[in-house]
Amino acid sequence: MILTVTPNVALDVTYRVDRLVPGSSHRVRPVGERAGGKGINVARVLRALGQEVLLLGFVGGATAGAVTDDLDRCGLAHQLIAVDGATRRSVAVVDAAGEATLFNEEGPRVPATMWAALEAQVAAGLPEAAALVVSGSLPPGSDDDACARLVGLAADHRVPVLVDGAGGALLAAAAAGADIVKANAGELLDVAGGSEVTAAAAELRRRGARAVVVSLGAAGMTAWTEEGAWRAAPPARITGNPTGAGDAATAALVAGAVAGAPWPDRLRDATALSAAAVLQPTAGSVDLRDHRRLVPLVLLEEHHAPGLDR
Q: Contacts by 113-120 with C-beta closer than 8 Å and gap 24+?
């Protein structure tokens, strides 16, 4: 079983329009709603890959029922903690060409007592867990050390942990010794400083992360690990809906960690699965036929950059 923690769960709402024109009225086709947030998207893809998952996180308010109802319909096991305040909505306006414009609400505040309850859930699940994923933004007012405490719990049980985050929480997770920290290039530079991704990744490894994976958007991704450093890219630019592509990559990375796959294979698989996710209209969805088709086409090159050894 893989535990996935989504600290800032969302209800993903999709409006489909013929064309998005700022300042004008739009006729919306039937509206789609589904449980979302990065960790939930990761869990959906992991299940598609045949992994058993358990979702943990916080929900509240009128939107909580819509989130849990969707998870129940999908058969995704969950133990979500109720908090005051409403679960945020993430609204995507998608035009006929598949271009998405996103509006993300902030989410409810989560008090320290609720974080303690989540940590107790994680601790209870870790003895049976193959891996832990902590993915997405923290709710307003949360302590940056919250992710680090979860990393520490996983380390106590010798369970590999991947943290996909940003800001101080990402730094704290690295310092706590996360097996994998993942971010996009902008997020990495924001937390590590400087203007060069390789140096920023080396800094997070110096602080304690065993591996650093950086998403480069349509250009693929790069990993700096104890085995070496590699960059992977899709064979051509993949057009479609990029929402959730990074979450598909996270799912592939953690599945590779559970399987003990070599890092080049993990990165190739993550790049292919991310590209396959772009071809789907909703986050958390993949067609494994696209994934299998793309894996052998991924371009992989090894990097020999200074400053990556610890």
A: 114/58, 114/81, 114/83, 115/142, 115/143, 115/146, 117/81, 118/5, 118/7, 118/56, 118/57, 118/58, 118/81, 119/149, 119/150, 119/153
Q: Rounded to whole angstroms, how far apart are CA atoms 50 and 64? A: 27
Give domain status of residue 308, yes or no.
no
- Burial of residue 310 (number of CB atoms within 10 Å: 0-12, 13-18, 19+): exposed
Give the domain range for residue 125: 2-303
Task: Report whether 18 contacts 95 (CB < 8 A).
Answer: yes
Give Cα separations from 156 to 9, 24, 29, 132 (angstroms). 26, 55, 50, 12
CATH number of the domain at 168, please: 3.40.1190.20
What's the structural domain count of the chain?
Answer: 1
How much is the pLDDT for 304? 65
Burial of residue 43 (number of CB atoms within 10 Å: 0-12, 13-18, 19+): buried
Both structure tokens of 187: 């997020």
Q: Annotated catalytic sites, by residue?
A: 247
Tens-place pLDDT, residues 102-134: 898 999 999 999 999 999 999 999 999 999 999
The model carries a pTM of: 0.91
**Nearest-angstrom CA–CA distance, 230 and 107:** 36
Q: CB of 63 within 8 A of CB of 34? A: no
> Which pLDDT band, with edges at 50, 70 and 90, does 287 fall under?
confident
Residue 309 in any domain: the answer is no
